[in-house]
Fold this sequence. Notes:
The structure is a homodimer of 391-residue chains. Chain A is of the alpha+beta class and 391 residues long. Chain A has 13 helices and 15 strands. The first copy, chain A, folds into 4 domains: 6-83, Rossmann fold; 112-167, Dna Ligase, domain 1, CATH 3.30.1490.20; 169-291, 2-Layer Sandwich (D-amino Acid Aminotransferase, Chain A, domain 1); 294-391, no CATH class. In chain A, the strands form 3 sheets. In chain A, strands 7, 8, 9, 10, 11, 12, 13, 14 and 15 form a 9-stranded antiparallel β-sheet that branches. The first copy, chain A, has a 4-stranded antiparallel β-sheet with strand order 3-6-4-5, sandwiched between helices. In chain A, strands 1-2 form a two-stranded parallel ribbon.
Amino acid sequence: MVGGGQLARMTCQAAIALGVDFRILVGSASDSAAQIWSAVTLGDYRSLSDVASFAAGCDVLTFDHEHVPGDVLSDLRTAGVVLRPGPDALRYTQDKLAMRDRLSALGLPCPRYTAIKNLADIEAFGSWPVVLKAVSGGYDGKGVWVCSSAGEARDVLSHSIELMVEEFVPFERELAVLAARSPHKQGAVYPVVQTVQQDGICREVIAPAPGLDGMRAALAQELALRIAAELDVTGLLAVEFFDTGDGLLINELAMRPHNCGHWTIDGARTSQFEQHLRAVLDLPLGSTDLSAPVTVMANVLGGSSASASAAASTSASAAASTSASAAGDVYDRYTHVMAADPGVKVHMYGKEPRPGRKIGHVTVSGGDVRRVRERARRAASFLRWGTEDGE
Amino acid sequence: MVGGGQLARMTCQAAIALGVDFRILVGSASDSAAQIWSAVTLGDYRSLSDVASFAAGCDVLTFDHEHVPGDVLSDLRTAGVVLRPGPDALRYTQDKLAMRDRLSALGLPCPRYTAIKNLADIEAFGSWPVVLKAVSGGYDGKGVWVCSSAGEARDVLSHSIELMVEEFVPFERELAVLAARSPHKQGAVYPVVQTVQQDGICREVIAPAPGLDGMRAALAQELALRIAAELDVTGLLAVEFFDTGDGLLINELAMRPHNCGHWTIDGARTSQFEQHLRAVLDLPLGSTDLSAPVTVMANVLGGSSASASAAASTSASAAASTSASAAGDVYDRYTHVMAADPGVKVHMYGKEPRPGRKIGHVTVSGGDVRRVRERARRAASFLRWGTEDGE
């Protein structure tokens, strides 16, 4: 697996159970997965020679992110490396315009969009607000901007990156579906979930999506399986939807384990991480059945930097220390969270708690969606480093 | 954790989620846990200096086996190492006579027993069959012998090890209970399970024990919690019982994650491995609730050496290779098992498949105990290396 973030880290847990010889290519020995795993190679995912020499020891190459450059992927394929997913599929996660063109050509429901070059193009597209998207990448860690005025759009345009515009969809809620597909063309799909975003960051996932009409749920699952097949995805495909009340529009795609599927570790028979390994190794796919009526995942985010460093300077309990050096008080917080609710499952990533950064997640399973959400939020809020809702 | 076997390996999965700085002391880099984990120290658990220098980097020392010599444990404690469980508790897993004396003094139900020195002592104890036990350790990897005649007993006596004799209990079935206890003296107990042994090896665990009377289940749980408290156990305590139909007799104790609790990874809210970490780190204990009505665990055993090496020489699928060098055909077998039953959870330990050796386990969850047992047995039998029931 190229990449050593939390997705690789949680894939390690699945690799332990399957007993597969799993190796990771990481940028730094302090990466989330590199902290814990034995078979770690240091290298740059943008460097053909680094990735190629890592791949030489592997039967299959897969990814915990979509940032390996397209030309590196093509060259690896030419060199005979087995890439799952392959470059032709991954392209649609790296080029949003190509993704929209392809899905539209398939007749699949997307927001209205077009490529733009300047403000006149945006103004010709429609009325404010609009959504500007970087076709690839972005700047300042962002690739999507909701613009309510020409002034806001001009600011984005000033960065001279390739942009597209999409209609602003006044959705009722966001849904997501995770499908898996193997080289044998077996498909599997998890129940539709509801995702709750705040400031562009996923805060919460509710599985299954509460009160979702059965027909609409089946449609979303069918769309995910169809996209996986049409785009020849191997491994996982996450499809994010806008639920407009009237119907579904496809928002984003990802071809790897995804935040919308973290709940599966504790809430489904097969975790998304095991499913991804099974898919890319061409093993038969696992059951996507729920293991509880409702599971809610809440992300644990780093707080503001000032209070985060204050939190980090409080003394650790005598019991032990954590992998994340700045998370010294993790045990004090664990004590509260675990004592308050013995059913909470904690997953920490060993990451420095920078503001807004996902440093872990919690899941809670149960019968009543309101109660389970409340428990998950409360636990995530307790664990949040250095912010008012965590103190 | 001292020891790098499958118990340490599965504890690694829990340590990843909790984000604790978990380290293991292993005898060899090829040990089950050492294959996958980053923080590995090579050393001999019988050597005070090896264990002490490993412990110097740790806040708490715990164990994946009970073989660290008593004098090493005492010296570590004197040196200020925090041992969980401590030497006074561990003694009862290392000296079966001391364990029986202690439990009997507490008035807890045990088989009739006595220390013996020779055949006359055994014949004075009662009629055949009897059970001879090594007070500590044993020979040829065994410590328990059911003897039906003076001749069989003479053979055991010839090895000049310290022995005790116990009455042969004609039990209806075997039960086990797993409890956890923290330095804070918090206790937690899992549902009572039924264990199915064959040739002295655990083959199957059914959780919860089918058809068990509620009063008897509560009694078994209470006994486990009481023993944990009386013996001042920190971490896990596994208590194995004989169910004689008339009542329960305590068979064996273990103070670590135990084979009778592997089902908890997939069948309980908190796995025994996470629970052990929480207990020894003095974190509040996790929920022991079931996550399915029935979960059955079946051990995957290595077959006869002749056919095992034949199995190992069959070609691996192109997809990937396994950690266990002799388990080259794991993918062919995975394909069958996973295709036949997508709900099976496979856990392999990366161990060479020697005859009778536990090299992995499978779990199946569901609603109907007969059907779930059948599925688990079938999966384990498919995965068994190099034996008639695996071919």
